[in-house]
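Entry 14. Ran structure prediction on the chain below.
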Amino acid sequence: MILALAGGVGGARLASGLASCREPDQLALVVNTGDDFRLYGLHIAPDLDSVMYALAGCNDAERGWGLRGESWQCMRALEQLGAGAWFQLGDKDLATHLLRTQSLNGGASLTKATHGLCQAYGVRHGILPMSDQPAPTWVDTDMGRLPFQEYFVREQCRPRVAGVQYSGGPPSAAFVQSLQNPALDAIVICPSNPYLSIGPIIALDGVRSALKQRAVPAVAVSPIVGGASIKGPLAKIMGELEVPVSPVSVARYYAGLIDGLVIDQKDRRYRPEIEDLGIKTCVTDTVMLDAEARGMLARQVLDFAGTLN
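Output, structure tokens:
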């Protein structure tokens, strides 16, 4: 049994790779919901959807988010009606949000609503919200404190970041059960943004202490490759927080929570410095350009975790 923590494009890619080499009853994917928000009365869950669409094989790989073959008639109509359509929702994507919101309004938990959507998309692996309660992430910037989506989408990550604030709160019951599962063999932290995607999960009540007290190996995959982030604003945020843009900083962020870190070939020079922190290091190709690369990296991550038993 593998428990993976994920969010964002990098998380969705490795989640897809893990699902390709583990049966549904051998993998639980806990996904960040700090990005969730309401728009036009709908509950939008970008990271949950990114992982679900990736596992369903219908994600838009070029954009990195949303559905492949999307259209935008509803957004154009909203703009014509004078609405500030700064957050783009495709016509097909809207169906997901409508069904999720209907389920939540009917009294279902976010976990149950997500399970229903996964069944509809043919996803058999468990995709679990980190929490069934709202747990929004806030970004402190030179424009003031912004809700995550306003920083990320409306302002396109332009404001200078001074810090990231998490809501905390209770993890979902399914997340707790996965952490406590006696069949658990390893924990994998996907190559997601540590501040924006994994930080909100770790900040939930009891999660950090549970990871520190784990009885199984935990491995993270660095989202930094060759001094840059593959996708998103991680490198920019690290620079603004005066944190060196290297996998060593990723190792320090997760210190005490992981036993091993997977880094890219371009960063092999950092291996001694990471291992001086007491974190074993695996050097491989971590850039996932296609399904074959995603599966290969997933297998290497799990094999590496197995050596840490």
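The CA atoms of residues 115 and 238 lie 35 Å apart. Will compare against last week's run tomorrow.
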